[in-house]
Amino acid sequence: MKKLVGILVMGLMAMAPLNEEAVTGTIEGFEKFSDMSLVLFTLGADYPIEIGSVAKGGAFSIDLTVADLPEDMPEEDMGMFFGNLSQSFDGSFPKEDFGLLAEIMALKNRYISIMDKKNRWAGNVFPVTSEEIKEWMEDEAYNNAVPGSYLNIVFLEEPVTLQFPVTGQMPYEGEDIPVEYEFDLTLEPGFNWVQYDIEEVFETDIKKRGHFPTKITIRNLEDPSQFRWIGKFF
Q1: Residue 149 pLDDT more than 60?
Q2: Which of 100, 148, 163, 224 is most open to solvent, judged by the fewest CB atoms within 10 Å of its CB?
Q3: pLDDT beyond 80 at 20
């Protein structure tokens, strides 16, 4: 992995626009269900983190400013789920790529889950720009990546701005295929939207493995209207 050569700035910055606003839309496939909660199960099923709600018909609202870590979870147990900042993004990033900022502890929340009124896990929601992106997220080994975008959520206790490129490798057929990442991201204390833009894809022999991204931008969410919110129900 190429050593970090960009600039990382830490300090109080302007909050990312969509972190302080409720994100609304419609969850596809929710028409036959009653009202439910939208949660993160990152800390386990016993400690769901509520981030919003979905009504019958699928209309939802997510407000990350009201989300918080559970107060009744022992601190030592919660600490088991946290990792350093370099582990909080999709991709393989050694700590040295993040310099001193790698030591910031963060919580990665890749999936948004649906919880019914009996506190049972009822499904997941995929914020994606296409059905193909959803399928690739569910099984990257056998489904093909395509250009497009998806979202996940990161929690941290300190503000940080990441603005730098990183180059990694993906092994394929005895070669290391370069994978370029561009961070352009401001994170505030609390829960933050993180958007991944897949810009280029390496085409493989799909009998051996699915196509994979080779150029990705990681940035703040600016326009939620471009996303489909596709539900998968249990």
Answers
A1: yes
A2: 100
A3: no
**Does residue 38 sit within a domain?**
yes
Q: Could you report the per-residue pLDDT of 88-144, keeping only the tens digit for each? A: 999 988 888 898 898 899 999 989 999 999 999 999 999 999 999 999 999 999 999
Place of tokens 């028409």: 31
Alpha carbon 72 to its chain centroid, in Å, reads 25
Residue 23 backbone zone (phi > 0: left; psi -120 to 50: alpha; other: beta): beta
Asked, for residue 11, whether it belongs to a domain, the answer is: no
Find the Cα–Cα–Cα–Cα dihedral 48, 53, 59, 63, rounded to 10°.
-100
Show Cβ contacts of residue 88 under 8 Å, excluding neighbours closer than 6 positions.
106, 107, 108, 154, 156
Residue 5 belongs to a domain: no
Q: What is the mean pLDDT of residues 147-152?
A: 98
- 194 lies in some domain: yes
Q: Look-up: residue for tokens 């894809």?
A: 201
pLDDT tens per residue across span 181-217: 999 999 999 999 999 999 999 999 999 999 999 999 9
Question: Distance between CA 220 and CA 124 in Å, rounded?
Answer: 22
3-state helix, strand, coil split of the chain in percent (to 5) is 15, 45, 40
The parent domain of residue 190 ranges over: 23-233
DSSP code per residue over 156-213: ESS-EEEEEEEEEEEEETTEEEEEEEEEEEEE-SEEEEEEEEEEEEE---TTT---EE
Instruction: Count other Cβ atoms within 10 Å, centred on residue 138.
Output: 12
Tokens of 175: 């070669």
